[in-house]
Amino acid sequence: MKKTFPLQKHLRLSFALAAAVIAGTCVWLLYSPSPSAVQIVDEMEAVAGGAHPGFRRNHAKGLCISGHFESNGNATEVSHAGVLQRGTVPLIGRLSAAGGDPAQADAHGMIRSMALRLAGAAGDAWYMAMNSVPVFPVNTPEGLYQQLRASMPTYGDNVPDPEKMQAFKRAHPEMRPFEQWLAAHPGSSGFDNTTYYSVNAFRMINAQGQERFVRWSMVPEIPYKAMTAAQRGDPDFLAFGLATQLEQGPVRWHLIITLADPGDVTTDATVRWPEGRRQIDAGVLVIDDQQSQVDGACRDIDFNPLELPSGIQPSDDPLLLARQAAYAESHRRRAEEESAH
Ligand code: HEM
């Protein structure tokens, strides 16, 4: 009988294990219902007419902002996060428009966005990325992937194939609340008079260990106004408007935390909670400066919505993990392009 040395045995076992892992990964990739971050970001690039090196693959057009958050301590009732204790923390953020083209005209997109990093004590910062529409068009990463495929510009122009988009909408009735909201709320006339929503649900945990599902929004002190006809002809009215406003003084929003009632849907970003849910005004966000996104402090930040301080946790909304992975992939690509520059 052939003698087998322990080392050979060990090597064979390792090869067998490695082969099983590779085969398992291939099967998972083939049959997993979720598209990978690479696939999603590839589609975002394709919809934007190709990669725009150095820029974010979504919300590509934007600017950096800085200021501070003045917490009034009201939200300690629901979360023991350091940034929600009474006091002031500095912040770096970014205002942007949805879409993958960093040169798109502002009137082209209706969705404005705000990303923030509220600096807590070391390692306890709160990152958030919010949109001006309180619901997302789809409720799964697969839905987003299909939506991107249906949005692909056709025939060499900048417009998606209307039939593909209609077919997508028929197959995804969950998109209706998003469309209805946009129809009733045309794009705002400025970054500064826009409400920004967390969209996804999260969990807050207080010092007694009690958990509540929440969503939050940044509500501006300046009232909403729809963009004007004159603004439609100005490709950069959003940045210009903010700069003009900041010359007169800081711009302020209130952090409003909305508490879910038992039974409210927390895993579907296309469903809003009914009116009348309890809300806590947690403090004031003060923005007093802006910088170009080309060399400002926000440039290299990944506003990963799962970078949360102790006292705030994700919900089971499947978009959240997909967001984390896609933001990291987009960040990896743009950081590599920056360093190769
Ligand atoms: C599966 C769903 C989603 C995917 C795959 C996705 C993907 C992305 C990607 C790849 C970026 C660029 C990130 C970077 O380079 O740093 C981005 C940016 C952004 N996304 Fe999403 N997103 C999703 C859902 C959402 C939702 C629900 C919201 C609204 C709450 C949102 C708000 C934003 C904002 C505000 C930015 C800009 C962040 C910045 O200024 O750096 N996204 N998204």
From TrEMBL:
Residues 15-341 form the Catalase core domain. It comes from the Bacteria. Pfam families: Catalase (PF00199). GO terms for molecular function: peroxidase activity. PROSITE patterns: CATALASE_3. Has an organic peroxide-dependent peroxidase activity. This is Catalase-related peroxidase. It comes from Pseudomonas reactans.
